[in-house]
C-alpha cells in the first residue's frame, strides 16, 4: 500500500486509488481461492468499503476533530505496511485486522455521528450498520484474541 506523508495528505483521488486497488487485490485473491474461504470472503469484500467510509468521514465537516483523529488512525492502519497481520506476508487475508480495527473505530464514532451520515458515505450493497454489527460479532473469529484485545484497549 502506498502511504501519504505529513506534507502530502491523502487526497480524494489517492483514497479512490487505494479503494480500487484493495477491491481488485481482494477479487483476484478470491478468484484464486475458488470459494474455499466461505464466510471469510464476505468479510474481505467489506475491506475496501470500510476504508473509503473511514476516509469520507474523516473529510466530512459534520464529524468532530476528536473523531477525525480516530478515523485518521484507522486510515493510517490501512495504509501502513506493518500491522498485526501484514498483507505483504499473508496476502489479502491480512486485511482482516484492518477491517476489524476500522469497524471498531466506526462503532466508536457512531456515538457522535448520526447513522445517516455513515449511510450517506457508505459504498456497500448492504446497510452500513448491519455490516458493522456483522464484523463486530465475527471479530474474534477473524483475528486472534490477542489482536482483538489490543484493538479493544485502544478504543477505551
Describe the structure.
It is globular, with a radius of gyration of 15 Å. With 156 residues, the chain is mostly helical. Helix content is 70%, strand content 0%. The protein is built from eight helices and no strands. It has one domain (12-155).
Outline:
This protein is mainly α and 156 residues long.
Helicity, as a percent range: 55-70%
CA distance, first residue to last residue: 28 Å
Which strand-content bin applies to the residues? Answer: under 5%
| Radius of gyration using CA atoms only | 15 Å
Shape: globular
Global structural class? mainly alpha
Largest sheet: none
Number of strands: 0
Mean pLDDT: 86
The helix tally amounts to: 8
Order of helices and strands: HHHHHHHH
Query: What is the domain total for the residues?
Result: 1
Low-pLDDT ranges: 1-7
Helix-strand layout with pairing:
Elements: H1 12-33, H2 39-58, H3 65-79, H4 87-90, H5 95-109, H6 115-121, H7 128-142, H8 145-155
List keywords for this structure.
mainly alpha, 0% strand, globular
Amino acid at each position: 500500500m502506498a502511504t501519504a506523508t505529513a506534507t502530502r495528505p491523502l487526497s480524494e483521488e489517492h483514497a479512490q486509488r487505494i479503494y480500487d486497488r484493495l477491491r481488485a487485490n481482494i477479487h483476484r485473491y478470491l478468484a484464486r481461492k475458488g470459494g474455499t474461504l466461505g464466510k471469510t470472503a464476505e468479510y474481505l469484500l467489506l475491506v475496501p468499503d470500510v476504508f473509503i467510509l473511514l476516509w469520507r468521514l474523516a473529510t466530512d465537516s459534520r464529524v468532530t476533530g476528536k473523531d477525525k483523529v480516530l478515523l485518521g488512525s484507522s486510515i493510517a492502519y490501512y495504509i501502513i505496511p506493518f500491522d498485526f497481520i501484514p498483507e505483504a506476508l499473508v496476502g489479502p487475508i491480512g486485511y482482516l485486522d484492518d477491517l476489524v480495527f476500522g469497524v471498531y473505530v466506526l462503532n466508536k464514532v457512531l456515538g457522535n455521528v448520526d447513522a445517516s451520515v455513515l449511510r450517506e458515505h457508505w459504498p456497500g450493497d448492504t446497510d452500513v450498520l448491519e455490516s458493522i454489527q456483522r464484523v463486530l460479532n465475527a471479530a474474534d473469529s477473524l483475528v486472534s484474541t490477542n489482536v482483538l484485545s489490543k484493538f479493544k484497549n485502544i478504543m477505551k
